[in-house]
Amino acid sequence: MVLAVDKRIGKHAILLVLQSEAEESISLPPHWKYCTGKVGAMDSQKVVSAIETAAKREGIIRTNGYRETHALYHAIMDALSGVTRGQVQLGSLMRTVGLRFAIVRGNPYEEMEEGDWIAVALYGTIGAPVRGSEHETIGLGINHM
């Protein structure tokens, strides 16, 4: 099993989430799928729901079945853990987030039989629910499909 240098799925997800809307989109390997979006909330479940809804709406994961949704959920929770520094709680700790997200699905290995993986990157702000009291944050989660 060899990770292909040009197919680092986490790197592609981070580049997508960091690029501004005015920038030209990065090129992904053939047959990879991706989508981006935004979410702001004081509830971590709302963040999870927004990302899951986008992934289903854009055809990144199938709408029926459990396996792909479960893989996406774990990638989201890993990314959210990075954003929240290990405590995946928002409103109960009096903090809120304003995040951009990128979801990327593809095979990062040279061997096709390794199958697809999914990466979720989050970038934005976190802080007290008072404008001006936030700071930047970033998180990344990667899981096999």
Question: Could you characterize what this model shows?
Answer:
The protein has helices spanning 9-18, 44-57, 67-83; strands at residues 33-41, 96-106, 117-127, 134-144. With 145 residues, the protein is α+β, with helices and mostly antiparallel strands. It has one domain: 3-Layer(aba) Sandwich (Hut operon positive regulatory protein HutP). Homohexamer.
Characteristics:
29% strand; 145 residues; globular; 3 helices
Which range does the strand content fall in? 25-35%
Count of DSSP helices? 3
Low-confidence stretches: none
- How is the main sheet built? 4 strands, antiparallel
For CATH, the homologous superfamily is named as Hut operon regulatory protein HutP
Mean pLDDT: 88
Label the overall shape. globular
CATH architectural category? 3-Layer(aba) Sandwich
Can you count the beta strands? Answer: 4
Count up the domains.
1
**Strand pairing plus helix content: what structural class?**
alpha+beta
